[in-house]
């Protein structure tokens, strides 16, 4: 299913849906990157609240967007990660980057 | 080892079949009454193996992926994923976490690491230019029968 992408102030919000595998990740990546290149957000927020399944393709998707945002001085947040995806997130080492939030924490505007 | 039930699937290595493959295996295995977590882990491991066939074994071409699933009397599922693609030159290197031959496609290099973590055991047999067979085993916890 296509992600729902919207710009809110300086944040690009990407609401993801359904199952994220290699097939789905390609489309999500292309859509998200097009929005990033057009809108130059300071922050990209990937919302996993409606993701029911994810394999390591989802990790590649997060890592790629993390690198992209780091290169232009922006940040990436991964929010509302369901319990069923925790093991995958931990295994990938993404925990160490401290970009993953089990729930969405209020954004620090400072 | 007594086999209680068995099924075979064969399908083309199109990326849109990745979801079909893990769902079909999941549906067949559901009769063993695994927990939601166990089923999700098996589906994830199958997804990784099938994606390897699509991305690596049949790179730039379409070939046939075969899956054989056996359910044993001791609550174990054995899933064999077979392709007749390019094969793996160095299996040990291919299984190293973060090693990937497809960085441009944002492959994280975690496929085998995920299979090893989400299945109880992973066995890989491969011959260059002949193909690869990945065998996943997972034993489900015995749950108390209803009533």
Key words describing this protein structure:
A: 110 residues; Transcription Regulator spoIIAA; four-stranded mixed β-sheet; 3 helices; 4 strands; globular; B: 147 residues; alpha+beta; Heat Shock Protein 90
Structure, briefly:
Chain A is α/β, with parallel strands linked by helices and 110 residues long. Chain A has helices at 22-39, 56-71, 86-91, and strands at residues 4-8, 11-20, 43-54, 75-79. Chain A has a single domain (4-97), classed as STAS domain (Transcription Regulator spoIIAA, 2-Layer Sandwich), CATH 3.30.750.24.
CATH fold category name of chain B: Heat Shock Protein 90
Work out the strand percent of chain B.
Answer: 25-35%
Q: Give me the number of helical elements of chain B.
A: 4
Instruction: Estimate the helix proportion of chain A, in percent.
Output: 25-40%
CATH class of chain A: Alpha Beta
Rg for CA atoms of chain A: 13 Å
Q: Largest sheet of chain B at a glance?
A: 5 strands, antiparallel
Largest sheet of chain A: 4 strands, mixed
Number of domains of chain B: 1
> Any idea what the CATH superfamily of chain A is called?
STAS domain
Give the CATH H-level superfamily of chain B.
Histidine kinase-like ATPase, C-terminal domain
